[in-house]
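Case study 2.
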Amino acid sequence: MNGQNEGSPRIQVTLADMMPLFQEQLTAGQKVRFIPHGNSMWPMLRSGRDAVELSPLPPRLKKYDLPLYQRDNGKYILHRVVAVGDTYTCLGD
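Prediction:
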């Protein structure tokens, strides 16, 4: 063995590139699984190692939900809901 994974090679793409497909799947009631990158949710999620599964959004999020959302600058964020009111307050772990 040469230490490399056998089988299909892994291809890394950006979340922005995948969002049209994710949205299509979620709209159809499907779940979407991906491996996030970044350290804002550490130690719960380890960048590039742990996977998350997105489900179609419920009518209203609740405290401790983990939504994926897009900031005004276009960046996608996966943070925990820590307060619910007229708006949601989300923070990384």
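The helical segments are 15-27.
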